Amino acid sequence: MKKAKVVEIFSPDIDDLLTYEPDDPESFNILLQISVGIENDTKLSESGETFDVEIYTPKMASFKYEKGSDFSAAKFVNCR
Predict the structure, then answer these.
(1) CA-to-CA distance for 28 and 43, rounded, in angstroms?
(2) Are residues 53 and 32 in contact, defined by beta-carbon separation less than 8 angstroms?
(3) How is residue 52 annotated by DSSP?
(4) Rounded to an integer, what distance in angstroms lies between the CA atom of residue 7 and that of residue 28?
(5) Which regions of 1-80 does DSSP assign to beta strands (E)?
(6) Per residue in 12-27, pLDDT tens?
């Protein structure tokens, strides 16, 4: 059975994800680019397929929606 593995998590907007602190923790969004490969596959274990994920706090999502942003294709996970 093939197992997926996360190769890299990167944000073009943030230099260091481990130390990042938003100006307003209640209202922000970040873009993550997540590379996922297959364990023990020489072609996909180092580079992987890249998935873009945009993460919003509930307050920022509400603000963007009110301003007319298109969330029709988005899937939301509400974390509280």
Answers:
(1) 36
(2) yes
(3) E
(4) 25
(5) 4-10, 29-38, 49-56
(6) 999 999 999 999 999 9
Query: What pLDDT does 76 receive?
Result: 58
Vertex 64: Cα angle to 60 and 66 (nearest 5): 115
Tokens of 60: 């920022």
Q: Kindly compute the dihedral angle of the four CA atoms of residues 15, 19, 24, 26, in this order, to the nearest 10 degrees.
A: 120
Three-state SS at 37: strand
Write down the residue that tokens 């009110």 correspond to.
Answer: 66
Alpha helices in 1-80 (DSSP H): 58-66
CB 12 within 8 A of CB 35: no
